[in-house]
Specification:
Distance between the termini: 37 Å
Order of helices and strands: EEEEEEEEEEE
Strand content: over 45%
Number of helices: 0
Radius of gyration: 13 Å
Mean pLDDT: 96
Low-confidence stretches: none
Structural class: mainly beta
């Protein structure tokens, strides 16, 4: 399954953005789809993921309560609603999928199908 992120842009601190992750292939053949981000000079880090069996969601502590991961009925698009954005959220955002177990959902090495990311810039 190949995934492509879109929807990034420039927003002021406190604002909102919704990112989309378009899937080509059978997303439900994978265990989960996740969002990750990479800020300049930093490693790519886990943001959120959603399981394809039951729709359970998991979040990084840094975004919990501000970001929401969801999907459409057909699992063709996975969304990341980002509210109360902070300058620290500035990064390139990527989506990918995993067939790993639930315990590995925060492990970037378990994911593949990475597409080009989308830039999110939050100004102070």
């Amino acid at each position: 399954v190949q995934l492509q992120a879109s929807g990034g842009g420039l927003v002021q601190a406190g604002g909102s953005l919704r990112l989309s992750c378009a899937a080509s292939g059978r997303t439900r053949s994978r265990n989960a789809v996740g969002w990750f981000r990479q800020a300049p000079g930093k490693e790519r880090e886990f943001v959120a993921t959603i399981g394809t069996r039951g729709g359970h969601t998991y979040y990084a502590d840094s975004v919990k309560g501000r970001f929401t991961i969801s999907k459409d009925a057909a699992w063709t698009t996975i969304y990341l609603q980002m509210n109360s954005l902070k300058p620290d959220d500035t990064a390139v955002y990527y989506c990918a999928s995993t067939n790993g177990p639930t315990s590995s959902y925060r492990d970037i090495n378990q994911y593949n199908g990475w597409g080009q990311g989308t830039q999110v810039t939050v100004s102070s």
